[in-house]
TrEMBL record, chains A, B, C:
GO molecular function: inulin fructotransferase (DFA-I-forming) activity; transferase activity
EC supergroup of this enzyme: lyase
Matches recorded under Pfam families: NosD (PF05048)
Protein name per UniProt: Inulin fructotransferase [DFA-I-forming]
Organism: Actinomyces slackii
Keywords: Lyase, Transferase
């Protein structure tokens, strides 16, 4: 072979990739380490390798463990299709379906489920290497990781709606640098991508949906980006979650339901959330907590909608609408130029008496809220029809029962020295003007 | 073959791809369907395939019809070059040109032209499949679709400037999910990409220019994204057009002339237009019509310039400058933090007496316009020189005859209950203050 | 070979790519020109080619010269790792390191250094072709260009910290159209990407760091984009620099230190800088000079931090903090909805007596500054600890000595007729209110 660092799983003699692609990848990684023994660049160095996964179904019965830098795993198709829709079609109709499963370069995760807190053990791909330097430039590109089924949780009538199966797609355990995840499809995993201790990570241009949680950046990290993805978690998990990150860029993502939140930042500082389209069925679409500070949340479109689909009509994230569509527990953040749309049936709101809140500053100080446009409409409860056309129709023009009174910005007593401007009239903003700075949006017809 | 789902058009025995790549692709699709007969994943399933197009010229005499999910068609070069410039160079000089045609993995569309309204029949690629599930995860990546020539239209002196030839690059007819179009080059097609009924579509990082219309999202759709593209339509068509879409994200595109508009949304709701650079030679750069509602148009740079190139000097989109650079017929939209530059020769404006308008709210109610900076300059009429250097020079520093009086925001009587702030002084904004809320930009030197 | 326009450097008979990939690429380009002699498309045309570089170490002893359109050079791994960290680890500890060098499809630039002003001569890749049409659609994708070592500069204690070696990664000399640079890794080059006279260029989704300068767009250009990159220059160079560009889009980049600036625009007009996260250790993070006009700088997060790492503690870009985090010498620009964080030890500031400035309008007229939130904190001087964890820790929560008085916006006498709104209170903004328009941010507790 003239290019020894290029592997094709279908050509590698170390196993049958259709039966267990995990074992095949581990065999390839062992071969890379065996061949790239010298660190000396004049001796070939340690350039890593590319592992190619042609389109096809590949079962993974053994966890793939990656502990070499510069490994790129590359498929030729993200292969997403909606498993959620299929699993809510009666099996009697399955024979009429064109196809049943996701496709492309598809990995079927067939590992025993992990216990909660031990997610690493049931990850399809585990990246783990301690010592120096941090493992660098591992890349996942262009294939599909399919968790196959969700499991009964004692609550969901249909176990396939539980968003629980103890399976993770990609789990990075140790400090890492310059990783790339792009063009992937991920579906029906309890956790799609979990990355600890990331530096200069890029999660770009993926399709990660119908997973319990989609992107979780844990422990701490810096200078990373989550951009231009299509994302939608299950009702109990996170679409995008980060903790203790500095300098994180979350931009130009289209995040659709469900997700207990669209973007949740805990202890995150000096980061940017910009130009995202965020759609949720619950309050708390963007959440900053645990002293998240000096972040800019700017130019996002947020829609808090109501659930249109029968199997999830009774599901909630447990928060009332007074929680805020944007909820801030932190200081010196900037919340500017966002549009917030709220479409709910006021007769069914759990917390109608507390009011519906657009932006809520719950604690902290020195936040700056400007140019927020909150539009709230009281709409008829959705019928629960499942058809795609009905969903689009609902999104486009929910039967409008009229405008809804909302608190566009609420500043709690525990949050002080904030500046709120151009985000609601005097009647629409709940703020202690002795403890904060406030300029109302001009009133209609005020000359 | 160890990877049966990987096809190379130059290796497939079913025809000569250089003579008719459409027939070859159809033969491959037939083979995929023949081989992937079982829907059972333990029997190989229906993972789809990748079709590889190496760099080269491939004539397409037969329409390629795609009715299988998870098909990725992948080239190794988007191959754009300007056909418009070449066709306006005298043929006597062609012998001095380094090359004449686009390149890369290039498909030469050689189909009979379609009648208007029957675009599907003359599409190079037609994606069509009814029934459930919706066809999913078809991907087009990294190749060039070249419509070759435009046809006489009875108006254009040079038929190659007509932007008419009845040819479409990619036409998706039926409801679809999770499609991807990326890294493509498309040139000299009357319609480049036409997609009906899209869900979670990604059109990302393409070069689509010198086409009658570039991106048209028709019928309805949701949760899609058009991001990070270089785009420029002909003077009679759309650069980016969408109708009845909800949750559409249009971000970080660089849209250059001509295009009768840069972005036009009809009946689009709860969508985001952010961080785009938009350059046009006519008024109406961003247009929201047909009750487009609750959208956020934020952080865009808009330039309404004047045509610098001789062949198109007399072309117009038929609108006067009072139409507005941003034109809104709809409700509850947010227009914020946009910069609008206007460079025109005031002596040649058709509608000079009506005035030049930055943002026009023509009908609807409840829109919110904030932080709009309109800069207008009266410039000498361009000489019509065609050289690239002259174009850049004009773009950089049109001979400045001085500032131009404009109406920065005009609110028509048919649009009410809007809020307009920080988008012009009292003299610059035309608004009925009894029917709307208004706060002018502070005046210079007002203490 | 059925696909003659697809080359693999490891299979091409014209040389040993591991010894000199430059000679091999030149041999391939010669073959392309030899084979594609006819411009006639019915004779095969000039579609260009793809050159594939599998993962591996490839020394480049001969400059690769590209003078054909539609050439794509494609690797299978960007291969970045931090060379800066390694070179500041004592060599005695190198034996404990997992790997020493960058990887992926890695090109080791082994050319004699260029003199200043003659960078083209020591570029690994030189793109040069005069005449018409402009050279088009050259693409660089997915490989690593490694400049290997920096050289003694008489100042840096460790020569590997000098950021000087006279080496350039990619140098494009002549007018060009529709180029693409994506998924590249570039490290330890004095100049990573230098492009003159660009039209519709895309620099997207790259990792360009630890280079003297990263992206330099010279001479003039139009309608290009620099999007979604991870970028960080050395302390003496530019992260993103452009001169005389019109219609440039710089968006969704994550730019980290050092860089004498993050984004510097000279004579740039009608361009957009949006949704970037920008981190610097010096004042002057975004700089507009030389009459840059009508640009929109919007929705960016800027952090002027202090150097945390021992080898660079004494390095400065020579500017005092009164220079401004955003510095404008130009007219009719819009600076809106940006967040500026400043973290410095006030006892060590060179120009403490002049004050710290957020946005400085130094010259020009008619600029519009709105909705700027400046947060400044006085922090203890960093210990110089190098560990990644310490850096993240500093980024997350620098020991806070309290708020710092800053001038949020300073308008110099040489800049007039500007409008400054909502960017600081009367006490925080330094402006001549007779020569400019001003509206202060409301004061805390002002009823």
């Amino acid at each position: 072979m003239t290019a020894p660092n290029r592997y094709d799983v279908t050509e590698w003699p170390g196993g049958d990739p259709h039966d267990d692609i995990g074992a095949v990848i581990n065999s390839i990684v062992a071969d890379i380490k065996h061949r790239q023994r010298s660190k000396d660049e004049d001796d070939g160095g340690r350039p890593g390798a590319v592992i190619i996964i042609p389109p096809g179904d590949y079962r993974l019965r053994t966890q793939a463990v990656i502990d070499v830098s510069y490994l790129r795993i590359e498929g030729a198709g993200h292969g997403f299709t909606s498993s959620s829709i299929r699993y809510n079609v009666p099996q009697s109709q399955w024979s009429e379906l064109h196809e049943l499963w996701p496709g492309g370069s598809r990995i079927l995760v067939d590992l025993p489920p992990a216990d909660h807190g031990d997610e690493a053990s049931a990850a399809a791909f585990l990246v783990a290497r301690q010592g120096d330097p941090r493992i660098s430039s591992v890349e996942f590109s262009g294939f599909c990781i399919d968790g196959l089924h969700f499991e009964p949780d004692g609550v969901s009538e249909n176990p396939e709606n539980s968003y629980r199966n103890g399976r993770t797609g990609i789990y990075v355990e140790d400090p890492n640098d310059s990783f790339r995840i792009s063009q992937m499809g991920m579906v029906y995993l309890e956790h799609a991508v979990t990355i600890r201790k990331a530096d200069a990570l890029s999660i770009h241009d993926n399709f990660i949906a119908e997973c319990g949680s989609c992107i979780e950046l844990l422990d701490w990290g810096q200078a990373s980006k989550v951009t231009d993805n299509l994302i939608g978690a299950g009702p109990y998990g996170h679409s995008i979650y980060a903790e203790n990150h500095g300098g994180l860029l979350i931009a130009t993502n289209n995040v659709f339901p469900r997700g207990e939140s669209s973007i949740r930042l805990s202890g995150v500082t000096r980061s940017l959330v910009s130009a995202n389209r965020l759609h949720s069925f619950y309050p708390g679409v963007v959440i900053l907590t645990d002293d998240s500070a000096e972040n800019l949340v700017e130019g996002n479109h947020l829609l808090r909608d109501q659930e249109p689909w029968a199997p999830f009509l009774e599901v909630s994230n447990g928060r009332g609408d007074s929680y805020g569509i944007i909820h801030v527990e932190g200081s010196h953040n900037t919340i500017a130029s966002n549009h917030v749309s709220i479409c709910v049936d006021s007769t069914t709101l759990a917390t109608a008496d507390e009011g519906i809140v657009g932006v809520r500053l719950a604690s902290g100080r020195g936040n700056y809220v400007s140019t927020t446009h909150v539009v709230a409409r009281d709409v008829a409860r959705n019928s629960g029809e499942s058809a795609f056309e009905a969903q689009v129709s609902a999104l486009l023009s929910s039967a409008d029962l009229g405008a809804l009174d909302v608190v566009t910005v609420q500043v709690d007593a525990a949050s002080t020295a904030n500046t709120v401007m151009d985000s609601g009239t005097e009647e629409e903003v709940a703020i202690d003007r002795t403890a904060n700075a406030f300029r109302p949006t001009p009133r209609l017809g005020a000359l």
